[in-house]
Amino acid sequence: MSDERPTSGGEGGGERPERPERPERPERSERGGDRKFFAKPKFCQFCADKTLTIDYKKVDLLRKYVTEEGSLRPRRQTGACAKHQRIVAAAVKQARHVALLPFANRGID
């Protein structure tokens, strides 16, 4: 007895059809470089500029940290450190309470 299996004939024991050859990929330098997107490093502007203070009355500064819908932007978008993001969140909430910032921007239907 032999442990070899037949390569052709029999039930469903045929050979696989050959795959079509893939076209060769161009070199990396011809494809436009290694990376398509380069994210610039984010830094906390409050840590970089010690004179800049976070205050609920500075609406222009706080608008950078609020989306069009009225929700707070996350740290990964703004680049603020955890300490200053918490202070910004508190200032935005205070500005909303005093009606300097809207709670939500709703369009008129």
Overview in brief:
The protein is 30% helix and 0% strand. It is an all-alpha fold.
Throw out a few tags for this protein.
109 residues, 0% strand, mainly alpha, 30s Ribosomal Protein S18
Helix and strand topology:
Blueprint: H1 28-31, H2 45-48, H3 59-63, H4 75-78, H5 82-97
Q: Describe it for me?
A:
- With 109 residues, the chain is an all-alpha fold.
- The protein has a domain at 45-97: Ribosomal protein S18 (30s Ribosomal Protein S18, Irregular), CATH 4.10.640.10.
- It contains 5 helices and no strands.
- The chain has helices spanning 28-31, 45-48, 59-63, 75-78, 82-97.
- It is elongated and about 80 Å long.
- The termini are far apart.
- 7% of the residues are buried.
Fraction in helix? 25-40%
Structural class assignment = mainly alpha
Rg, Å, rounded: 30 Å
- CATH class of one domain, anyone? Few Secondary Structures
Q: Write the CATH architecture name of one domain.
A: Irregular
Number of E strands: 0
Q: DSSP strand (E) fraction?
A: under 5%
Q: What is the CATH superfamily label of one domain?
A: Ribosomal protein S18
Largest sheet: none
SSE sequence, one letter per element: HHHHH
Supply the number of helical segments: 5
CATH topology grouping of one domain: 30s Ribosomal Protein S18
The chain-level mean pLDDT equals: 81
Cα shape: elongated
Euclidean distance between termini CA atoms: 83 Å
**Uncertain regions spanning at least 5 consecutive residues:** none
